[in-house]
Automatic annotation (TrEMBL):
Gene3D superfamilies given in the database record: Aspartate/ornithine carbamoyltransferase
SUPFAM superfamilies in alphabetical order: Aspartate/ornithine carbamoyltransferase
NCBIfam families in alphabetical order: orni_carb_tr, PRK00779.1, PRK14805.1
Any Pfam family hit: OTCace_N
Residue ranges occupied by any Aspartate/ornithine carbamoyltransferase Asp/Orn-binding domain in the UniProt entry: 147-298
Recorded superkingdom: Bacteria
Lineage: Bacteria, Pseudomonadati, Pseudomonadota, Gammaproteobacteria, Alteromonadales
Organism encoding this protein: Psychromonas marina
Aspartate/ornithine carbamoyltransferase carbamoyl-P binding domain location: 3-139
Known EC number: 2.1.3.3
Family, similarity comment: Belongs to the aspartate/ornithine carbamoyltransferase superfamily.
Keyword line: Transferase
PANTHER family, sorted: ORNITHINE CARBAMOYLTRANSFERASE, MITOCHONDRIAL, ORNITHINE TRANSCARBAMYLASE, MITOCHONDRIAL
Protein name: Ornithine carbamoyltransferase
InterPro entries assigned to the protein according to its UniProt record, in alphabetical order: Asp/Orn_carbamoyltranf_P-bd, Asp/Orn_carbamoylTrfase, Asp/Orn_carbamoylTrfase_sf, Asp_carbamoyltransf_Asp/Orn-bd, Orn/put_carbamltrans
Length: 301
């Protein structure tokens, strides 16, 4: 594995090794305090971020390395200069590029012209660091990932795709419950299902909350992803039945909640459950840093 653009790059063993390393980084930070000493990581952002920006910056620092944040105010990629020149220049100085972009094709081009590893920190189609942080979080609460049933509820998007990919590789059951017209990408579902056939995973899409009775974990995300300028009022009524709330926990028997955040309290999730005992949401946010450090150590060294 040289880059992490989609998640499909990972074998099952590599995904398990990343989770194990992420746990060790969390438990034994002192052991890794110089693990990226002398190394520099450029984090490029075309879109907004709280968790990703802060976890990569602080995460690199915790490994003894140096992070450089670049937003679009200092020259937008493809506008001030070409993506390929961004990649070729940065890879002469840095040891790794982390990029959050609108269009997945930008990452593919970046990887083509970069001589250092490229990590996708969210694009229109994938959010692999998120998906791996989520399975790290689940594995801290469930011993056997192949027995875990995870239900993603809401808009079929980049996060859904990354849960499907990580879940398929790790042998889990992942069902996305989406309103009609908001299903995940058919091609990515098919690719994840092909992997699932080999690992024993189950990857499904449905419109009905009824189908996730007896599941272990429910997962939410924003109804409108960055770059989607659909007015909230246009979709709110359609998405309200897919809100993560106490009634959903009661009707399904689900015990744990994840949400990648940013959360929209009162819309995609209620405060009652986000702040309640079922929530693993802030562990999950913390784990972004540990899994990303595991990914950087694996790719850079
Ligand atoms: N979950 C996540 O990626 O959060 P940010 O958009 O704040 O980075
Ligand atoms: N699906 C969301 C995830 C945010 C972390 C988005 O792309 O905006």
């Amino acid at each position: 594995m040289e880059d992490l653009l989609t998640g499909f790059e990972m074998t099952q063993q590599q995904a398990l090794d990343l989770i194990a390393l992420g746990k060790d980084l969390k438990a034994n930070p002192a052991k890794y305090a110089q693990a990226l000493a002398g190394k520099s990581v450029v984090t490029l952002f075309e879109k907004q971020s709280l968790r990703t920006r802060v976890t990569f910056d602080i995460g690199v620092n915790k490994l003894g390395g140096h992070a450089v944040y670049l937003d679009q105010a200092n020259g937008a990629m493809g506008s001030r200069e070409d993506v390929k020149d961004f990649a070729a220049n940065i890879s002469r100085w840095a040891d790794c590029i982390v990029a959050r972009v609108y269009d997945h094709k930008t990452l593919v081009e970046m990887q083509q012209y970069s001589s250092v590893p490229v990590i996708n920190s969210l694009c229109d189609l994938y959010h692999p660091c998120q998906g791996m942080a989520d399975f790290l979080t689940i594995s801290q609460n469930y011993d056997d990932l192949t027995k875990v049933k995870l239900a993603y509820v809401g808009d079929g998007n980049n996060v859904t795709h990354s849960l499907f990919i990580a879940g398929a590789i790790l042998g889990a059951t992942v069902t996305a419950v989406c309103p009609i017209g908001h299903s995940p990408d058919a091609q990515i579902i098919k690719q994840a299902q092909d992997i699932a056939e080999k690992t024993g995973a189950t990857i499904n899409v449905t419109n009905s909350i009824e189908d996730i009775k007896g599941y272990d974990v429910v997962y939410g995300d924003t109804w409108l992803s960055m770059g989607d300028d659909t007015p909230l009022e246009q979709i709110k009524a359609k998405f309200m039945p897919y809100q993560i709330n106490q009634a959903l926990l009661d009707s399904t028997g689900i015990k744990h909640i994840l949400h990648c955040q940013p959360a929209h309290r009162g819309l995609d999730i209620t405060s009652e459950v986000m702040d309640g005992p079922a929530s693993l949401i802030f562990d999950q946010a913390e784990n972004r840093m540990h899994i990303q450090n595991a990914i950087m150590l694996t790719l850079v060294n």
